[in-house]
Amino acid sequence: MDVLKGGYELSQEFFSQRFRKRLGRRNRAGRRKHDALLYSESFTESELTALCNYKGKGCDRSITYKYVMSKLYDQAVKWLPMWLAPNAVTLIGLCFVLVPHIVLSFYAPTLSEEAPGWVYLLNFIGLFMYMLLDNLDGRQARRTGAASPLGHMFDHTCDAINVAITGLTVASTLRLGNNIYTLLLIWFFGMSVFFTATIEEFYTGSLVLREINGANEGLLTMQGFYLFSAIFGTGLWMTPVQITSSWVLPLGKCVIFLVVPVSMPTIAANYYAIWRVSKKSDSKIFYESLSGSIPFAICTVAMFGWAASSSVLETYPFLYIWACEFAFLHIVSYVIVSHLCGRPNLPSFSFMVFPLILGLANAVIAKLGAESVLELPLLFGVVIISAVVNAIQAYRIARQICEHLNIRVFSISKLDE
């Protein structure tokens, strides 16, 4: 009787699983009809095939990573529970920098005020945890057998979002203020090196982090800024420094002149790597990389042009930086996705730069004395629309990959389980 009962239960479980799978497929098919906006296909069948066959290549040559941090990461990953999904590790890391950043923004709304010491300490802990978890997600994926191209995309997307979060936090810590120095810091120390590293990976097929890079030494330097400010305050960053006989700058703003000599060689090295591959293979990919960089170049011109043509950065610093960030996020995300699914080339224009161009045109019109749109409603509209477009794109990509690979974004279990 026990044997018959066991057989009956096994049979019942088998048919129950088949029913759940069939019902899940029917439910997803039904949702496709009603959610045309959210389900619009992001990949062709050939691109999905390339996505599944993708194998990442690259190396981290950082001296700090090689001799210190990698050993810490190898030990720390053992403390993560086996049921914790790699993408959840990535998301938790992003939250560790986002929450302290929000706290700091309340104390320093114009990026020039001094916050209590514990706020900088909170940001130090948050950025350390972000750096730690950002290096544990890949190890957790290999440890649990949950590695996927979706994880690669999600990790890089969170890194791109952190460009604005950490950039604003560093600017606030150094008390740069709501001016062009903050924009220069975020562009040189974040956007430019991130984009050129991503486009190098697209054209060479390999992501190489050099001996001194932002993912290691850069983040450790920022943590040093936070910890110093937490212990000694931010007064040091306001110490006047004589640049020339008639030019005096606070020490915090002088950091920009240290960032540029570090970032420019990195940018040059990224394009030089593409040029070497182009020369070796006798192809035109170097010129194609320059064409693929045009959207980022337009985004850069619009960013600095709008800020220079009006008081938008001085009046609404956080809104403006996030408007620029969402345009940058869309551009760099397209490069990442195109690399993973084997698209042969990149477009020379991105429609997501149009809102920034619109803002620049409106500012120029107002400066010429003609009738223009009020800047706050326009800026707010740009941020909302850009955020929604990026969110819809992310949802479409994640949904199609999950259904194709039968995986979940934030769980190790399969989609039909």
Q: Could you give the distance between the termini?
A: 30 Å
Low-confidence stretches: 1-23
Helix and strand content put the structural class at mainly alpha
Radius of gyration: 24 Å
Walk me through the topology.
Blueprint: H1 2-34, H2 36-39, H3 45-53, E1 58-60, H4 63-76, H5 86-107, H6 117-144, H7 149-173, H8 180-204, E2 207-209, H9 214-232, E3 240-244, E4 247-250, H10 251-281, H11 285-292, H12 294-309, H13 312-315, H14 317-340, H15 354-367, H16 375-405
Parallel strand pairs: 1-2
Antiparallel strand pairs: 3-4
What do these coordinates show?
The chain has 417 residues and is mainly alpha-helical. It is 74% helix and 4% strand. The protein contains 16 helices and four strands. Strands 1-2 form a two-stranded parallel ribbon. Strand 3 and strand 4 (247-250) form a beta hairpin. Helix 7 packs antiparallel against helix 14. The longest helix has 33 residues, at 2-34.
In short:
This protein is about 75% helix and about 5% strand.
